Amino acid sequence: MRTIGRPGMSVRKAPAKTQTKQFESLRATELYCPRCKHSMPVRERLLLVLPEGEKYEYLCVRCGTSVGDRIAKGEPKPLIVY
After folding, report:
1. How distant is the alpha carbon of residue 25 from its chain centre?
2. Is 67 helix (H, G, I), strand (E, B) or coil?
3. DSSP per-residue string spanning 21-54
4. Are the beta carbons of 29 and 41 closer than 8 angstroms?
5. Core vs surface per residue 4-27: b (16+ CB within 10 A) or e
6. What is the number of other CB atoms lying within 10 angstroms of the CB of residue 58?
7. How far apart are CA 75 and CA 60, in angstroms?
8. Whether this model's pTM surpasses 0.85
């Protein structure tokens, strides 16, 4: 293990295996709108349901321009073939 900090003060860095995840997914609340030329609040709209997850589109609340998208990956669902 490596120590960091000031001389005379020992602070140990946690090993990489014990570090926990800070977040699972991010959702945008504001994004830059090229039409409004400002950072604007956005509305999230479900666009597609894909095998790897759901695709969402971010729309500017002022003008309705699409300013981004994201794919929310859920738990994999078993494929049932008859």
Report:
1. 4
2. strand
3. PS-S----SEEEETTTTEEEEEEEEEEEEETTEE
4. yes
5. eeeeeeeeeeeeeeeeeeeeeeee
6. 24
7. 29
8. no
Which amino acid, 57?
E
| Domain-wise residue ranges, the chain | 47-73
Q: Each residue of 16-73: pLDDT tens digit?
A: 555 666 666 778 899 999 999 999 999 999 999 988 889 999 999 999 999 999 998 8
Instruction: Give the dihedral of Cα atoms 66, 69, 74, 80; nearest 10 deg.
Output: 70
| Contact assessment for residue 58 and residue 40, using Cβ atoms and an 8 Å cutoff | no
> Two tokens at 32?
């830059």
